[in-house]
Amino acid sequence: MPSEPTDSKRRVPSLQALLHGGAPVVIQFVKFGIVGVSNTLLTFAVYTLLLKVFGVWYLAASAIGFAVGTINSFLLNRRWTFRGHVGDALTPVRWMIVQCTGLGINLGLLYVLVHDARVDKLIAQALATAVVTVTTFFANRAWTFRTRAPVPVADSEA
């Protein structure tokens, strides 16, 4: 008859175990979020500075802030969040495609929220950022920083 596990055999997984195999999507998303906080602070700082101090048009200020945040994000996510990725020469290209798509979504949402919904420009930027964060995380995880090489398509010989 099998014995019941004792309390000493029941172990709560350590943070290190979770980081390396417990819940990879959740942990990656948390890391992506941490990097995102630094990007968001940097992006908002640039956006606010350009908008409020230099009087730059809000969509241009957003695009410039987004570009600064994107560079920061690529460097941190490549080295920390997705460090097990299969890197190749196209990784930065894929990153830029995802980020440019994110920028398009960001600017589109920002325009609709400010122009049509009459939401405050800073609040609108925050709302757009939330949507873009989730979208770009999953796109980067699946495509830019994938951890497995794609399966090659077999050539059919006739």
Structure overview:
The protein has 158 residues and is mainly alpha-helical. Helix content is 71%, strand content 0%. It has 5 helices and no strands. It has helices at 15-22, 24-53, 58-81, 91-116, 121-144. Helix 2 runs antiparallel to helix 5 (121-144). It is elongated, with a radius of gyration of 21 Å. The chain starts with 14 loop residues before the first helix and ends in a 14-residue tail after the last helix. Mean pLDDT is 82; it is low at 7-20.
Secondary-structure topology with pairs:
Blueprint: H1 15-22, H2 24-53, H3 58-81, H4 91-116, H5 121-144
In short:
The protein has 5 helices and no strands. It is mostly helical and 158 residues long.
The whole-angstrom Rg is 21 Å
SSE order: HHHHH
Instruction: Report on the biggest sheet.
Output: none
Shape: elongated
Mean pLDDT: 82
Enumerate the spans where pLDDT stays under 50 for 5 or more consecutive residues.
Answer: 7-20
- Helix count equals 5
Structural class by secondary-structure content: mainly alpha
Total strands = 0
Which labels suit this protein?
single chain; mainly alpha; 71% helix; elongated
